[in-house]
Amino acid sequence: NAGVTQTPKFQVLKTGQSMTLQCAQDMNHNSMYWYRQDPGMGLRLIYYSASEGTTDKGEVPNGYNVSRLNKREFSLRLESAAPSQTSVYFCASFNGGGYGYTFGSGTRLTVV
Amino acid sequence: GDSVTQMEGPVTLSEEAFLTINCTYTATGYPSLFWYVQYPGEGLQLLLKATKADDKGSNKGFEATYRKETTSFHLEKGSVQVSDSAVYFCALKDSNYQLIWGAGTKLIIKP
Prior knowledge:
The structure holds 2 protein chains of 2 kinds.
Chain A: E1 4-7, E2 10-13, E3 19-25, E4 31-37, E5 43-49, E6 56-57, E7 64-68, E8 74-78, E9 87-94, E10 102-103, E11 107-111
Chain B: E1 3-6, E2 11-14, E3 19-21, E4 23-26, E5 32-38, E6 44-50, E7 56-59, E8 62-65, E9 75-77, E10 86-93, E11 99-101, E12 105-110
Parallel strand pairs in B: 2-12
Antiparallel strand pairs in B: 1-4, 3-9, 5-6, 5-10, 7-8, 8-9, 10-11, 10-12
């Protein structure tokens, strides 16, 4: 099925550990996004990539890095996880037209 | 900057009740407007959209009309079902093609 695929779906990390969240889309979209969702705070943009080879900071980039590996893939890395990074992370892609974003199903991350 | 304000939840209704979730926006120009829905444990899905003033977006019995004069895009449904229980997000697409999100409104429908 066409869409946005995120892995893993669930992850528990210890404080200070690192990990990479993977995202891939097969819709040939130029733009890709990483959001975090916390209770009562809606969606907050971490990083985005308007096109292959470019990345930009969003609202809450601290503690994260991203890589736009190719047009399909956009990964999010936590170098040294902190409990404040416990959240649900969503990847999304966008075709630039009159339609909205297509979202992945999310990664639920807990940092203990 | 651009912003979206939607009513706080949770909104609790009985099955077959009429639903309104208010959404107002602040933006330069004429942004496209969206409603997304997030069912428990899932990602967000586009519910409906409107790209210009007086457009009405509709899907699955939900409707929203782009009102430029009141800068609003309220979501309505005439008769809600238990399966409509979810979190609803209002959003606008700004001039840089970024989506600006409301905080979300949790809807609970009781049988």
